Amino acid sequence: MQISFLSKAIVTTLSIILASGCVSEYDEKRANMIITALPTEVADCTFLGDLDTPGYTMIGAARFNLKLQAANLNATHLVETHAYSFPMVGRLLGVALSGRAYRCPVGKGPILPNEEANLKYDFPMMMPEYDTGNRIR
């Protein structure tokens, strides 16, 4: 019996959702304390490290993972640097994020997340199909 593409996509999506649900309340609070900022807003802060997420089906899950990584470095702020597509199952594409973690002293850096600092994911969710002439259908 063959499993359809849609079935594979659904199973993959549900697996990711269930796996991402395995976060402690403590880690969730820590990640939610990280403030997303523009590079200019953290100019007077200490750079702690570059971060990368695995591929997720939703940008919110990738953003949460990035913030949790920043929290694990004792960061206070996060600058998102890249949003890129990530192959999942079959033709399904997910999203991955990269960023930079910073620790800002009291009085430096923004005190609220900057929505303009959140990268947008505007890639297609499915890989285009190619025919034998390598033309998109």
Give the number of DSSP strands.
4
> How are strands sequenced across the largest beta sheet?
1-3-4-2
Using the alpha-carbon principal axes, give the shape.
globular
> Main β-sheet: number of strands, strand sense, barrel status?
4 strands, mixed
* Uncertain residue ranges: 5-20
Q: Helix count? A: 3
What is the CATH architecture term of the domain at 24-117? 2-Layer Sandwich
The chain-level mean pLDDT equals 80
- Which fold name fills CATH's third level, the topology of the domain at 24-117? Translation Initiation Factor IF3
Indicate the structural class. alpha+beta
What is the helix/strand order? HHEEHEE
Rg from Cα: 18 Å
CATH class assignment of the domain at 24-117: Alpha Beta
Terminal-residue CA separation: 28 Å
Can you put this structure into words, describing what you see?
The chain has 137 residues and is of the alpha+beta class. It has a domain at 24-117: Hypothetical protein apc22750. Chain B (Translation Initiation Factor IF3, 2-Layer Sandwich), CATH 3.30.110.70. The protein is 28% helix and 23% strand. The chain is built from three helices and four strands, in the order ααββαββ. Strands 1-3-4-2 form a four-stranded mixed sheet, covered by helices on one side. Helix 2 packs across helix 3 (59-72).
Question: What brief labels describe this structure?
Answer:
alpha+beta, single chain, Translation Initiation Factor IF3
Structure summary:
Helices cover 28% and strands 23% of the residues. With 137 residues, it is of the alpha+beta class.
